[in-house]
Amino acid sequence: MSSGRATPIRLGISTCPNDTFAFAALIDRRVDWRGFDFQIELLDIQQLNRRLVIGDLDIAKASFHAALRMANDYIVLPSGSALGFGVGPLLLAARAKESPRDAKQRTLCPGDDTTATLLFRLFYPHTTRIDQVVFSEIMPALATGQADFGVCIHEGRFTWQNQGLHLVEDLGTRWEKTTSCPLPLGGILAAKRLGPEVIGGVQDVIRESLESALADPDSPLPMMRRHAQEFDDQVLMRHVELYVNQWTRDLGSVGTAALTELSTMAARAGVIPEDVHLEVFGQPPVTTAQTGQPRASSSHGPQTTPYDAPTKDNG
Fold first, then answer.
1. For every residue of 84-134, which 3-state class applies, written as one string?
2. Which of 124, 145, 179 is the last residue of a domain?
3. pLDDT for residue 314
4. How far apart are CA 241 and CA 103, in angstroms?
5. Is residue 98 part of a domain?
6. What is the pLDDT of residues 115-158, one digit of tens each?
7. Parallel, antiparallel, or unpaired: how do β-strands 59-63 and 7-14 relate?
8. How many domains, in total, are found in the chain?
9. What is the C-alpha separation between 122 and 242, in angstroms, rounded?
10. Residue 299 has what DSSP assignment?
11. Which is it for strands 59-63 and 183-191: parallel, antiparallel or unpaired?
């Protein structure tokens, strides 16, 4: 960036632990802002989706479902994404041995533009009534019998059994068996109108913030505790270990191919036009056939922990 007045950047991230982990050093200004003036908001993921749609943010975390709908105006940054094996949303039931089958049943989802909602529509089409609520309201509503099913995201993946709920299906595992790709949940979108110099500079800051957290995993904990739904440090770090991996550092060809697969399936389901695809900054389009996608492991864990070095493919 050239010297002079700082360039304002309206930046939005979600309050989930993997984002507060990755962005803590940026928010606390423990990394060089490189001539940018970051105006930072921490919001629910569906709020971020909506703010991007109306152009109210320059760069923000978004569901990849929402990103598909905004592909003409936004580009995906290589760093900061949440995708992997064993990271998918869970379809939970209020009662044991029930599954979505008819319109008399009610399923709660965490926002119409979320990837969680897209997966439910892909795998349970034309079944139950769907109502959209804030993600933190889903499990309490199921526990009190206000709904039949709910698609659970974030820390609830680790705590749903404590509320007496029942697992219908891990939607991420279903995705893995269907595609052999890591599941793309959400990523950092940048408005194309910013231009490559600004987008590249912000990407560098985000990558440095993430690397700072990986080098000192305890340093983001105060930020994570401040915004989490669960306050147990062990639960927070389990969340980070699951959702922060080599594709968070850099999507690379494997991550880019997973986005291609998501757009293909969404188009087949009639959710988006067939010619829509997500562009990753600095990364040419990749098809799943080009990457030789690995099969999901039986352990359903991520391919690396956040403390592993990135693979050669992912830089």
1. ECCCCCEEEECCCCCCCCCCCCEEEECCCCCHHHHHHHHHCCCCCEEEECC
2. 179
3. 29
4. 37
5. yes
6. 899 999 999 999 999 999 988 899 999 999 999 999 998 767 77
7. parallel
8. 2
9. 24
10. T
11. antiparallel
- Write phi, then psi, for 31 (nearest 5 degrees): -125, 160
Contact present, 194 and 187 (Cβ < 8 Å) = no
Residue 218 CB: number of other CB atoms within 10 A?
A: 9
In a domain, 218, yes or no: yes
Determine the structural domain holding residue 134 and report its residue range. Answer: 90-179
Of the candidates 135, 159, 179, which is a domain's last residue?
A: 179
CA distance 17 to 94: 26
Residues linked to residue 37 through DSSP beta bridges, in sequence order: 8
Q: Give the span between the Cα atoms of 61 and 81, in whole angstroms.
A: 8
Distances 31 to 23, 27, 100, 134, 158 between C-alpha atoms, Å: 10, 9, 47, 32, 31
- 42 φ, ψ to 5°? -110, 120
Two tokens, residue 298? 């039986």
pLDDT digits (tens, 9 = 90+) for 187-221: 999 999 999 999 999 999 999 999 999 999 999 99
CA 44, distance to chain mean position in Å, is 12
Residue 22: which H helix or E strand, with range?
Answer: helix 17-27
| Element containing residue 167 per DSSP (H, E) | strand 166-170
Residues 71 and 136 in one domain: no
Lowest mean pLDDT among 27-31, 76-80, 156-160, 292-296: 292-296
Element (H, E) at 185: strand 183-191
- Is pLDDT at 290 greater than 90 in this prediction? no
Residue whose C-alpha is closest to residue 24's, from 159, 281, 211: 211
- Annotation marks residue 154 as catalytic: yes
Mean pLDDT of 183-188: 94
Q: Spot the catalytic one: 154, 166, 227, 239.
A: 154
Do residues 249 and 117 both lie within one domain?
no
Structure tokens of 211? 């690397």
**Token pair listed for 306:** 């956040």
pTM of the model: 0.81
